[in-house]
What we know:
- It contains 12 helices and 10 strands.
- Helix 10 (261-278) runs parallel beside helix 12.
- It has helices spanning 9-14, 37-50, 59-76, 100-116, 122-133, 143-158, 166-183, 201-212, 216-232, 261-278, 281-294, 327-360; strands spanning 24-25, 28-29, 35-36, 86-87, 249-250, 253-254, 305-306, 311-312, 315-317, 320-322.
- The chain has a domain at 1-139: Glutathione S-transferase Yfyf (Class Pi), Chain A, domain 2, CATH 1.20.1050.
- The longest helix is centred in the last third of the chain and has 34 residues, at 327-360.
- It is globular and about 50 Å long.
- By secondary structure, the protein is mainly alpha-helical.
- One of its GO terms (molecular function) is transferase activity.
- Keywords: Transferase.
- This is Glycosyl transferase.
- InterPro entries: 6-hairpin_glycosidase_sf, Terpenoid_cyclase/PrenylTrfase.
Amino acid sequence: xxxxxxxxxxxxxxxxxxxxMEHACGIVPRRQEGYSTDxxxxxxxxxxxxxxxxxxxxxxxxxxxxxxxxxxxxxxxTEDGHFHNNFAYDRSREAESPSEDCLSRCLWACARLMVxxxxxxxFIAAETMLRQARKYIAGMNSxxxxxxxxxxxxxxxxxxxxxxxxxxxxxLANKLVSHYRRHARExxxxxxxxxxxxxxxxxxxxxxxxxxxxxxxxxxxxxESLDFLIRLMTNERGQIxxxxxxxxxxxxxxxxxxQQPIDVMKLGLAAAKAYEIxxxxxxYDAAAKCRAWFHGDNDxxxxxxxxxxxxxxxxxxxxxxxxxxxxxxxxxxxxxxAIMMKLTHSGDEAKEHASxxxxxx
Length: 361
């Protein structure tokens, strides 16, 4: 499983000496829009996934990006351990309130680096940031913040780090289940009264927790809610249709537009994890459909990926595709590609192993 680092060329285009810029006009970075720490954490995640995909000879270019994003996150972490999210192009901090989403995305990027690069000096930076932010976990309550943090500490617990993270795993998983029990109805298997953005994170977090603590309740809620989400996000032709951000989705109805690539990626993330744990082909199929959405199997019947630029279009609206190619979109595309390449590769290895075992007997 190997491909060229050239697949990341739009990530390189959007990244300057400070970090990855948030928006673009076409493919050209919009400096006036500045940077977000969210995007640095997600771009760092992309790089860590693609280290497993590109050749070792080409990995040096990815490490250079990793250092930029990691340095930005270190700079963005405040003295109290939280993370400032929004920065102008001149590196000044823009006014904002602390965000659990930003904090938890940074936790995930740090945890992912600690597991992927445990024997490098970069580990020190990631572990330092995570340790300083850990105190906020007990007070965290937003479902998406809980889900990202839950995935982070589950990953560390899975790899048996000397620090005990299992108390955080149990507390965060039970919070998500509590959200679900409060809002779920016979016709509404969800954690909130509306399904809004990045919905796949919520079942994904519980699935990650189940990997380290096989609590059947966590698995049941994850599977029930993921099945519901897949139904919500599938159109009449069997294609993925992200919930539109112009109105979201409630029991009374759903918005069709505007569709965002990040929502497709998060569904693919959850479906891939469910396939790894439960093994049902329907989850593999759902993850594959998420990848297909980027390549034209969508409501616009248009490929969202521009092979010439390496970028991904920002979304689909009622009048068609938004041809701007910002950070969130390309990050979502590259993560979806990595998810499917790894899922297919692991499936092929499992089939090969089963064949060898069968031959012996």
